[in-house]
Amino acid sequence: MGETTAVVFDLGGVLAHPPKGPMAPPKDFFGPAGDAGGTDQADDHPWHRLERGDLTLEEALTLLFEDMGVPMPSSGAPLPPGMMPPGMPSPDVPPPGMPPPVQPQGAPGPGPFGLPLPPPFKLEPAFVSLAEDLSAAGLKLALCANLVRELEPLWWDLYPWPDLFTIIVRSYELGARKPDPLPYATVLERLGTTPAETVFVDDSARNLATAGTLGMVTVLADGPAAADRIRELSGLSAPSRPATEPAVTASPKTDDDHQGAAEKVLANLRTLARRLPERSAEIESARAIPRDIIEDLRDTGIFRALYPASLGGPGLSDPQLVEAIEILAAGDASVAWCAAIGLDAALSAQSWPDEQVREVFPSPDLITAAVLPPLGKGVRVADGFELTGRWSFASGIGHADRVLCGFLADGATPVWRIAVVNPGDVRIHDTWNTTGLRGTGSHDIEIRELLVPERHTWPFLGTGTDRADGFSLPADRVNAKMAGLPLGIGTAALQAAIRILSGKKDMMTRQPAAAHPGVRANVARAESLIEASRAYVHRSLQPGGRRGDAALARQFAHRSCREAVQLLYDTVGSAAVYSERTPLDRHLRDLTTACQHAAVGQRILEGVGELRLGGDPMSPFI
Fold first, then answer.
1. Which residue in 97, 247, 533, 577 has the most C-beta neighbors within 10 A?
2. Which of 297, 299, 305 is nearest to 275 (CA)?
3. How far is CA 281 from each of CA 271, 423, 430, rounded to the nearest angstrom?
4. pLDDT digits 0-9 by tens, 169-181
5. Could you tell me the pTM of the whole model?
């Protein structure tokens, strides 16, 4: 890392906060606006087109009204009462409990069609003060923000920005918005600095991903600690505190602290999981997880689950991690699968020091798509590798912040390494048309002659960094989470079958199905298979176990729970085939697909058998 000579700030969410609630005009007014990685210029969402300057605000509203079937008023005329689009207040009638809208100083009156402009942004004192200190210390400062031209009055008059930031890069002037590389390249060019000496500050992990790929030092603006981090990188001392304000001294987390953090993650997941079944049909049909669910999942803390405490890990034990995936799988199997794959960034902490992990993964909540088998080829070049390859089963590639790719590094003895790349550097082949787990979007991906710095790779079977905290992720621990999937699916299927059978009558006798001895026996048999699997999995994760115990239990759980779901499907009978009436069809298909994963296949039995008979199986799953 070079000496810091420049700091680039985002605006909204960093230096100033946009208005919230029903008076806020932005993204949700036009519908969910998740950044869908990769080729941002191909995104036709109205808000993104506004930020790129492709549309005026009036044109965007016109399109919105047309989509809603709302009659368009003449320019400058307010909409009739009751015809205001959802989320926007009437110009004349404020929402309940809200004061009348106040125009920001210097604002050009009402917006298009008489819509009021919302309240102005509010400054974030901690980061504004930091920027002033950086400027006083002689560092170059720049603003680089995704902005809408017509809404600039909401923030421009809050502060004399040009006095502090000599360079302001606006997305609508470039015709490109973050995370497209153009705004980053433009700000570096105008600053006249190298990426290594430039700190990029943003509240979006996706935006930071591009900055990190270009070699800039990144800081996620997620609280006061971020401002302290920027001061440290820039060589500034911490701000002085009033005499009445006690200094805060960080103390090591205790076991109770970790337990509390872990339980909070599990509680968050339970809350989210309750909402998933009603979205399952949508998820399966789209072959992707909606952006709002991804962000809610990120907020639970699950993606930091495997990190050590020094990198923000909440301290989930192996049994708790299995429970976390089981909770999600009972709600929706595709969401659970993507959660399990999406937390693999922590693998880097085995081989990299914490500082390097933070550079490549500036937030512990970044999401990975991981294709670890060494199907790529890395040709050694100066300071890194030229990577080429094609990988299958890139689960979650549509929402990933980073992609982990396995490859063989050339040399006298090829070495299996893992590369971390930006989703925008991979080509996605739409191949995921499958029996089950359709919502995971596990398409093929391809990379051609991509230059990857060696510091963005690590040896998959390396010896690690000999961490003082003893952190390690052996194969049994990394893959243990997958056991939660069949347990969750099995439990959900059992509950659904009991619900259906409790109200079902035999077609011929018209007797309650629940009165039939065979039905009763099958329900009990299914429950015993699921509960035996759960007991076996959790026993295999207790301290003092042998290598292979968790792998064997994981394989057993998948096969036994699939048998249980098949039994329940058959017991429910013809009603089970109606996918819109019962989830049993989807549960069976999801679990059938999950059973094809290498971590739970026949080779697990062969490998553990070899191990028990004195061998040493070469398997990343045991």
1. 533
2. 297
3. 19, 27, 20
4. 999 999 999 989 9
5. 0.67
